[in-house]
Amino acid sequence: MRIGVMAAGAVGGYFGGRLAAAGHDVVFFARGAHLTALASDGLTLDSVAGHLHLPKVAATDDPASVAPVDVVLFAVKLWDTEKAGALVKPVVGPDTRVITVQNGVDSVERLTPILGRNVVGGVAQISAAIAAPGVISHTSSFAILRFGRSGGATDPHLAAFAEAGKAAGLDFIVSPDIDADLWKKFVFLVGLANMTAALRLPAGAFRSDPDIRAFHLATMREVVAVAKAKGVGLADGFAEDRLAFVDSIPAGMRASMAVDLERGNRLELDWLAGKVVALGRELGVPVPANEAVYAMLKPYRLGRPAT
What we know:
By secondary structure, the chain is of the alpha/beta class. The protein is 43% helix and 22% strand. Strands 1, 2, 3, 4, 5, 6, 7, 8, 9 and 10 form a ten-stranded mixed sheet that branches. The relative contact order is 0.11.
């Protein structure tokens, strides 16, 4: 298959690299030092699933120079959604599927006005980061990609992409209920991002503390309550299930927002805890734990504040 990766960050770089290694025609959209490294040294995956170095990859900062692709794996930071959507539009043909695997729960509705019904929701479950330009560090035992059309409508293009992923040894799944899957990830991600960023600590440093554990659970229960107010059918006790799952993740695991905070980068706060706060106010659902985290991290949302 012909696959465009917008952009070649941690998530897009990992899955795109594995697909390229399996023989698929993958083009990475990148910029800056990362693009320079991809062009000169190729792509390296430093992964618990096996080290991979692709000495030569197709990479560009100009999607308009590339012919339409079968699938766009859309994995940019949430504040870049509309800008990146407009940039990638030239490679989106009538049969292209744009699978957004961003964090948050509103990417499809933000991209659809730009790219039309080509856009479908996706969920990436992976712990990865850019370790250096051209180098992706993958530290989780899992690397799962779920995607599908809202309402569970069948789509042969998505089925073909899932089969291509499976043939490449990847855990690709066409979801029968991507809307619920997006909110399930959102519950976990908001909780982990809240705690690892606000505490500036990895999961293993706080998950056994009873007071912190109770606050962590409260942040996730609020997300479940907001989801239910929106008509998303999450099971009772789902937040508790996700808290138990945190006990099983690597002790050093942090959400990407915590990594961005440490590096002084812009944060996805407005689309994580901030989104919970906004929806809570809109729907009349109390979300005091998320309000507290949002207030604490708000000075850093655009990057490290000047002192």
